[in-house]
User: Fold this.
Amino acid sequence: MRAGSSLLYLGMFWVLALHGFILSNLPIAAVFEWNVLSIYAAFFLFYGYPDVSLFAVGSVPLTVYLIVALLLLPLIGNLFPARVSFLVAMRYYAGNWAWNAWLFRNGSYRKLHVLKRAAPLLTEQQQRFLPAQQAVQAESGFLAFRTLHLQGRILGMLLPRATDGNPFQEYTYADGETVAGSVVGWNFGEGHLADERLLRAVQEHCHFEEGELRVICVEAQPILGSTLHWRIVDAKRGMLGEGHAELSELAKRKPWDYGET
Assistant:
């Protein structure tokens, strides 16, 4: 690639557009740092050294590694997101990744106390220094964050089904990321760490009764697909239902469209 070429300027434009868009829409924590670094790296690596060829690596093992890590895994992960971590597939911060909602009924989250955890659930931590009502409101921020994005609006369809029509006030909502952070000690937004597999492991030790813990699992949209695969799982009974939701239908919903809860 030559300095001043149209291809160089086009590539720089797309890098700045992509990371600038993410930066302006989700300017928090690691997201901010990552996108600032990516913009800086684009100028330093590609604009600063446009004459360096992709074929100048000089190492066959390194070349193979770069092809697998930067081409094959992202390709497979975008075609089949359920089979590859969104971190490896480079889908991070695109607003389209696997996620989960854990619903504990009538304070049943206290059964998690039998586990040796990295930390209590976020709602338990907040209750230490906030009145109960404010702690609930703070935890609801995760619920609001999900429904502000297209993929999260599926909650309006699934929450009434997952709660069997019971009042939502009987449940403690915990985002899967916070559950994985508490139980596993790490999450980094990877929804596959808090799906049915973690639920089965938790159930082996905590023995939730039927209806005490329900988990809504939502898989990412494949790059060539137009649907989201969802599951509702009970800690004791197992799978209660699954299906696919059309993104075009979710786009018609408002974040607050929850029906009777």
Remarks:
- The two ends are 58 Å apart (CA to CA).
- The chain is about 45% helix and 15% strand.
- The longest strand covers residues 238-246.
- The mean pLDDT is 89.
